[in-house]
């Protein structure tokens, strides 16, 4: 008698648990600069505070697709790519929070 009830409860639990369909990205699918970020690789929480502050200042509502840590000589620069690159081109920010421009960073040199 207990076995069929146990199996029925297990089947209902599995059916309910498996029916949830979450989206990829940040917390609850949120990749917003202020609250989320990429799911894999370098995340917003991994960035130095000056980089996060600059990113929030320049693009407070952008959806971050990828963060790539690059070096040019001895300078570390973070390439921030956005989900909509047509309207939000990549942003390069040095460790101290300066926005950096230059082709050298495109190649990861």
Task: Report on this structure.
This protein has one domain. The N and C termini lie far apart (69 Å). With 109 residues, the chain is an alpha+beta fold. Strand 2 (75-82) and strand 3 form a beta hairpin. The chain contains two helices and three strands; from the N terminus they run ααβββ. The radius of gyration is 21 Å and the shape is elongated.
Which short descriptors sum up this protein?
109 residues; alpha+beta
Separate helix tally = 2
From the alpha carbons, calculate the radius of gyration and give it in angstroms: 21 Å
Low-confidence stretches: 19-27
- The helix-strand sequence is HHEEE
Percent helix: 10-25%
Task: Give the biggest sheet.
Answer: 3 strands, antiparallel
User: Order of strands across the widest beta sheet?
Assistant: 1-2-3
Q: For the residues shown, what is the average pLDDT? A: 73
Structural class: alpha+beta
| Content of β-strand | 15-25%
What is the first-to-last residue Cα distance?
69 Å
Give a brief rundown of this model.
With 109 residues, this protein is α+β, with helices and mostly antiparallel strands.
Topology record:
Layout: H1 2-18, H2 49-58, E1 64-72, E2 75-82, E3 91-94
Antiparallel strand pairs: 1-2, 2-3
């Amino acid at each position: 008698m207990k076995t069929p009830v146990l199996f029925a409860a297990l089947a209902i639990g599995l059916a309910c648990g498996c029916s949830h369909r979450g989206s990829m990205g940040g917390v609850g699918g949120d990749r917003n600069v202020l609250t989320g970020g990429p799911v894999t690789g370098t995340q917003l929480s991994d960035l130095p505070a000056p980089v996060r502050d600059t990113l929030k200042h320049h693009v407070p509502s952008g959806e971050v697709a990828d963060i790539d840590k690059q070096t040019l000589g001895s300078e570390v620069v973070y390439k921030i790519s956005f989900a909509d690159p047509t309207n939000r081109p990549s942003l390069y920010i040095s460790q101290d929070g300066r926005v950096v421009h230059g082709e050298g960073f495109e190649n990861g040199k």
